[in-house]
Amino acid sequence: MFTTAPWPMVITLAVLTVTVVFFVMGKYRSDLIAVCALICLMLFGILTPEEALSGFSNSIVLILAGVFIIGGAVVRTGLAGAISNKILGLAGDNQNLIFMLIMFLTAMIGSLVSTTGTVAIMMPIVVSMAAALNASPSRFLMPLAFMSSMGGMLTLIGNSPNMVVNDVYVKAGFESLTLFSFLPVGLVTLAFGMFILAPATSWFLARRKNEKGESKDKGMSLKDLAEKYQLTQNMFKAEVQEGSSLAGRTLAELGLTGKYEVVIQEIRRGKNQEQIAPGPGTVILTGDTLHCMGAPEKVEHMAEACGLKLGGSLGEIKDKDKYRFESIGICELVLMSASRFVNRTVAESGLREQFGISVLSIQRGDQYIRDNLKDRVIQPGDALLVQGSWENIARLADFSQNWVIVGRPEEHIKSSALKHKMPYVASIIMLMILAMAAGLLPTVTAIMLAAALIIVGGCFRNLEEAYLAINWETIVMIASMLPFAIAMEKTGMVAIAAQFMTALGTAYGPYMALAVVYFVTSGMNIIISSTPVALLVAPVAIQIALNLGYSPLPFVFGVATAACMCFASPFSTPSNALVMSAGRYTFFDYLKIGLPLQILMGIVMVIALPLLFPF
Fold it and tell me: Which of 68, 308, 450, 491 has the smallest count of CB within 10 Å of its CB?
């Protein structure tokens, strides 16, 4: 005989289901979805306003904000890059040794910096290093993304789910975990991950092993980058003749893109053919040479209509005159999944208006898109080849929450003015770790103090830059999802789920209960972000352990590990998606490497966790 569930439980379950569906769809930002769900729980009276807003006063929000600021300083001062280059310099050209060093270094950085931040730090280094070795970066980039998650298991602050389950654990009446409570778990994940990834990536990505790197030089040269994107295809030279309708008018007035579907990418002027980066206010003069991008028939039509002398395709020009990068340069941007430019067309993104740069081409997987760019929708993981003045290209680095800059030629961009702050940042981080490890300060106090000292110490150019280092989407999403645990407990959902899994544990033992908790979390994490999954499952896992009369520690660590160890899809985590385009991976690549690793990691952890933290 079935009993009717009380309406608060039905409503909570309905709101939770709709929230999960919207998370899976990925059409809207996760913070907007979470806030709307929270409002629904308040409107239906499931949560009081005080309960609903309790997440925003939770210490985990301050911890995450502080971690983002510290991670931003590590990147901006060049500390991570300096350490990376020093360690990588020890390996020479031994690819296996380099692979091990990269994975180890990624794990170390990942223990303090978010997974996305870790990949953003390491990816440009790996791509340039692969080019120097004349090797494909695909051997390194997927393991890089996976290892950033594994490294996050070394410390309490390494991954967001670690801090989330600790918060739930403390609210259940237990003493808070310490900074290195996760260390035994992290060492197991690292050892097993390295054991599997080293041969697996070499074997399963063997079809790419003969791909040549883009350059034998240190890093990817500008010419190599231009040829990688086949920049001269559909690029033509046209001279502005006397009496041309373009002469004396600005590009904004002319509206050439709208009229002819042709984009002016570069202007060369005068006897010395000075390079000019075109902008809306740029005035066209008689005698200018325009570098036009568009279909041949479109360019011919514009030349005939506007009185231009067409000089042919740039692909036909002799090599030494084909590319010039004195005042105008190019670089490659790989879009973050949370970038505010994602799901907008190139025209809507405002990249030209805000940064003074033009998009020349889009790489999406193995496809290069060069036609009708202004109407192309930018997708997560896309790589954009952009062009602009070196000054404007240098500005792109200040918006690292939106993209990773790959193939940026360092010889053309001034070194960071903040490099002298590297020793200061390193000292602050070491003191923070010591304070937390020795129990001198609570975690939130130590992290907030470190973040404040970094800001006051001038490790950011201004306070606004420090705020830019914080991923506010993650902060708001977590703060909005935290009260869901309260709603699930108030309506009895936690008790029902715990009773079901407790029955399994009673019938088949605690290992079965732990396996169910782990693989339910792992399965949900394939389609939902790790933090909401950890928030939803952790209270159930703790209740199961209490019902069975066991220590909740193996269950708590099981939830955290399962929430972080998600490798089966490029869209499971931002770091997975971030390397997809740069590594030219397909969805199947993640299935054949990531899915077995995720399953095997689950089996290993179900066996190892009770040994590390007995029931």
Answer: 491
What is the pLDDT averaged over residues 445-462?
Answer: 86
62, two tokens:
């301050």
Distance CA 137, CA 357 (A): 27
Q: pTM above the 0.85 mark?
A: no
26-35, 46-55, 424-433: least confident range: 26-35
> Is residue 596 within 8 Å of residue 146, measured between CB atoms?
no
Is 232-322's fold the same as 328-408's? yes
**C-alpha distance from residue 243 to each of 249, 269, 307, 310 (Å):** 12, 17, 7, 15
- Asked if 67 contacts 444 with a C-beta cutoff of 8 angstroms, the reply is no
What are the tokens at 56?
Answer: 């925003």
Spatial separation of the C-alpha atoms in residues 341 and 332, rounded to whole Å: 15
Return the residue matching tokens 């496809």: 367
CB-CB neighbours of 296 under 10 Å = 11
The structure tokens listed for 517 are 């908790």
Q: Which of 373, 290, 366, 359 is nearest to 331 (CA)?
A: 359
What gap in Å lies between CA 338 and CA 447, rounded to an integer?
A: 24
| Cβ–Cβ < 8 Å for 313, 236 | yes
For the four alpha carbons of 89, 94, 95 and 96, in that order, the dihedral sign comes to negative
Architecture per CATH, domain 232-322, reads as 2-Layer Sandwich (3.30)
CB atoms within 10 A of CB 578: 28
Q: How far is CA 403 from CA 78, 389, 454, in A?
A: 17, 18, 23
Fold classification of 328-408 is: Alpha-Beta Plaits (3.30.70)
Angle between helix 493-508 and helix 472-490 axes, rounded to 10 deg: 80
Cα angle for residues 75, 77, 83 (degrees, 5° grid): 70
Whose CA is closest to 165, among 567, 606, 560, 604? 560
Place of tokens 């290195």: 180
Residue 562, token pair as written in the block: 């399962």
pLDDT of 63-115, one tens digit each? 778 877 887 787 677 776 666 566 666 666 667 777 888 888 888 888 877 77
CB contact set of 189 (below 8 Å; sequence gap of 6+):
150, 153, 561, 565, 601, 605
Q: E strand or H helix at 333, and its extent? A: strand 328-335
Helix, strand, or coil (residue 405): strand
Q: Dihedral of CA 110/115/120/124: which sign?
A: positive
Q: Which tokens sit at 336? A: 């973050």
Q: Domain spans of the chain?
A: 64-215+442-470, 232-322, 328-408
Q: Are 566 and 522 in contact (CB under 8 A)?
A: yes
Strand-pair partners of 369: 362
Closest listed residue to residue 423, CA positions, set 89, 74, 84: 74
pLDDT one-digit tens code per residue, 116-145: 667 766 776 676 666 656 666 777 888 888
